[in-house]
């Protein structure tokens, strides 16, 4: 589910926003069943100011902007300063400002559903929309599962909470007008797209 938040071009520089932002990170992609999948997320062109989360095998160039990502916490405790999950993943879109200077725009990740499929492609876009995600003690990204509605009927049931879901997949798919092998979320197994392989996404610190 996507949620909205207001962004401005200078948001990353603001104290309130920066206090909830961590990174940069690389995002390691590893296959759950196909162990040959071992690479990293790279932001790749998918439209005007839109990037997909493409798969790049092998070692990562952590100095490249296309491989650097941030985790933005959804809030913090004003008494303790402790940051609070969930949050969202963001990428900095480079551009040239009206004065000819290099600048960046925060582009949060959102899932773009296809209503004929259970596969939703991940996209970075400089908009007011993002998808909430969290990470566990191993820095693996997940989404909260909400309630299991598989047995719902006219009688109100005792809700069963699903807990963390790790339904990330690597799929050959259209992202805008481009066809890539890129990261997606599969709402229920099996994925409608037969090329999808289950993966883990793990945040890794960039050291200089």
TrEMBL record:
Residues 1-18 form the signal peptide. InterPro entries: DUF7907. It holds the Pfam family DUF7907. It comes from the Eukaryota. Keywords: Signal. Residues 26-202 form the DUF7907 domain. This is DUF7907 domain-containing protein. It comes from Diatrype stigma.
